[in-house]
Write a structure and sequence with these properties.
The protein is α/β, with parallel strands linked by helices. The chain contains seven helices and six strands; from the N terminus they run H-E-H-H-E-H-H-E-E-E-E-H-H.
């Protein structure tokens, strides 16, 4: 990391987007692996443009059209890390509510689910679904993004809070959130069963 020098693509947004969003892009860029637990939204780097527009359309206060499109463009550019020659290994734990919550029209969600299945076919991506029938689990109220750094001491946890985003680095937090993700994985379906489940939900939309 010390040898790598910018500028980076997210530097273009420094005067137009909150610093926390830029920090997420930087964290993902340097991660050797990503683990994500999603409760209400699709994983950020697997979202389609129209799905992102649906999410930001619900923002309070309402975004100006130019600001909304700036956020959409930024989020979509984050996904470029998946096309690198050596992309990070990614595990996405997705609750069933994510598959059923609509942001935008019905066809937007259907296309988003199709895209999720397409991306799950990448060799570095694993998607596991936690169905409603699995019951409760640790930290069920919030989504979590765990970035594995080049060395364990550089691991970082990012969580969403009402005022923006928070990053956690202390070893106690890292240990606890690894346990949270491990326990959620225990409640999740296996990858193949997860994709079958996702396809079935798509038929119901």
């Amino acid at each position: 990391m010390a040898k790598e020098r910018g500028p980076y693509w997210w530097d273009e947004y420094r005067d137009s987007l909150p610093a926390g969003l830029l920090d997420i892009a930087e964290m993902e860029h340097h991660a050797a692996a990503l683990r994500s637990a999603q409760i209400m939204h699709m994983p950020g780097i697997l979202q389609t443009p129209d799905y992102v527009r649906g999410i930001f359309a619900e923002a309070v206060p309402t975004m100006e059209p130019a600001d909304l499109e700036r956020h959409v463009g930024f989020r979509i550019r984050r996904a470029a890390l998946l096309d690198r020659s050596e992309p990070p290994s990614c595990e996405f734990l997705v609750h069933e509510s994510v598959l059923r919550m609509r942001f935008g029209e019905r066809k937007v969600l259907r296309r988003q689910i199709d895209y999720l299945v397409e991306q799950a076919e990448r060799p570095n991506i694993t998607v596991r679904v936690v169905p409603f029938s699995a019951g409760g689990f640790a930290n069920a109220g919030s989504s979590t993004l765990y970035a594995c750094g080049p060395v364990p001491r550089l691991d970082t946890v990012q969580i969403d809070v009402p005022t923006g985003v928070t990053f956690l680095h202390a070893e106690t937090y890292l240990v606890n959130y690894r346990a949270v993700l491990d326990r959620m994985r225990e409640r999740a379906l296996e990858p193949k069963a997860s994709l079958d489940f996702i396809r079935q939900v798509a038929k119901e939309i």
